[in-house]
Write a structure and sequence with these properties.
InterPro entries: P-loop_NTPase. By secondary structure, the protein is mainly alpha-helical. It has three helices and no strands. Helix 1 crosses helix 2 (56-69). The longest helix is centred in the middle third of the chain and has 17 residues, at 26-42.
Length: 91
């Protein structure tokens, strides 16, 4: 089996520690973002929300997924979703 980049996927048992570090499943990220947006829309879409990620790459993937899941909101409010980490200039 190969990944999105055509690299061979090691045949072993993966666990929670491997998620979003060694094993990145884009569909999982999209589903998490979709669920977060469902919860925000059901309560208050503009409530301050912090999502902790494994690393900078995971944070950027999650930011993009939430922007996509949020529909029109980020288009109307460009700072609606921001990635904030040690490398961030803004935020």
């Amino acid at each position: 089996m190969t990944d999105d980049l055509g690299e061979e996927i090691e045949q072993r048992t993966y666990n929670q520690v491997d998620m979003d570090r060694i094993l990145v499943i884009n569909q999982r990220t999209k589903l998490v973002a979709k669920r977060i947006m469902q919860l925000l829309i059901a309560t208050d879409p503009f409530a301050k929300t912090i999502i902790f990620c494994e690393d900078i790459d995971h944070a950027e993937r999650m930011r993009k997924a939430i922007v996509n899941a949020a529909g029109q909101i980020p288009l109307d409010s460009p700072k609606y979703v921001m990635r904030i980490n040690g490398d961030s200039v803004e935020g």
